[in-house]
Amino acid sequence: MTAGRFAPSPSGDLHVGNLRTAVLAWLHARRTDREFLVRIEDLDRVQPGAEERQLADLAALGLDWDGAVVRQSERARLYDAALASLAGRGLVYECYCTRREILEAPSAPHEPPGIYRGTCRNLSDAERLAQAAVRPAALRLRSELPDFTIQDELHGTYEGVVDDFVLRRGDGVVAYNLAVVVDDAQQGVDQVVRGEDLLPSAPRQAYLATLLGNQPPTYVHVPVALNTDGQRLAKRDGAVTYQQLRELGVDAMALIAQSLGLAGSTMAELLEEYDPASLPRDPWVFVPPPG
Ligand code: GLU
């Protein structure tokens, strides 16, 4: 089985930019004869009720998905097994750095802030013990290369940094980068359509996939929605959720279709018209409806 997916974090309602990404992921998967899966990424930042509202909004748009919705909070065993496999090969180490220490560590010129420079990579046992008395350890990947190259249908060949990124946080929560890679592989996801903001994470994830013995998926990082100030669309930009738009008499589906240059008004109609070669390349500027 091959599949595409949409994997929202239930931290609040989806806005119309997120919904547009979901529509694109669905169209792209269906158009390329793949199954379409929905996975709830609920390891972190869960708002009660958000998952139900997100799923209701996807269904209201006419998106359907194959099989049951999967929740990351129910898959700890899979993540633990992946961690154990990496640890067994010496690819995991304990890190005691705080976020602040990492941000303040000296970095090389032109290096984006927050890249981990391996402070805890080679601690002695004594150093580790001393640190462990102060705070719980995060687990990091002992990366064996500085960067990794992925293929993206929109961005072409894309090379990005692979630092010793976190696999499990100090509070015991499995990191997004590990969970997403384990889940995509285990669920047969070989096509990842998602917002462009996640493009810099893709080389880390693709590298981790190869370490776990899996072929990285095909990536399609689509432009995100912007507000009229040119900033990433957010809830505070006003009427941006499916329900808010509905209350103003605006059909989110029609708005999304129009933004994609498509004329249909149901998912089935959009699918007929949709040409994967004409994926949007520019951000979509969302103009709030009057109201
Ligand atoms: N859960 C992530 C988010 O909502 C998306 C992860 C992914 O698509 O890989 O930002």
UniProtKB/TrEMBL annotation:
Residues 5-270 form the Glutamyl/glutaminyl-tRNA synthetase class Ib catalytic domain. L-glutamate binds at residues 5-9, 41, 176, 194. Its EC number is 6.1.1.-. A motif ('HIGH' region) lies at residues 8-18. HAMAP family: Glu_Q_tRNA_synth. This is Glutamyl-Q tRNA(Asp) synthetase. It comes from Aeromicrobium panaciterrae. Belongs to the class-I aminoacyl-tRNA synthetase family. GluQ subfamily. GO terms for molecular function: glutamate-tRNA ligase activity. It comes from the Bacteria. InterPro entries: aa-tRNA-synth_I_CS, Glu-Q_tRNA(Asp)_Synthase, Glu/Gln-tRNA-synth, Glu/Gln-tRNA-synth_Ib_cat-dom, GluQ/Sye, Rossmann-like_a/b/a_fold. Zn(2+) binds at residues 95, 97, 116, 120. Binds 1 zinc ion per subunit. Keywords: Aminoacyl-tRNA synthetase, ATP-binding, Ligase, Metal-binding, Nucleotide-binding, Protein biosynthesis, Zinc. A motif ('KMSKS' region) lies at residues 232-236. Pfam families: tRNA-synt_1c. ATP binds at residue 235.
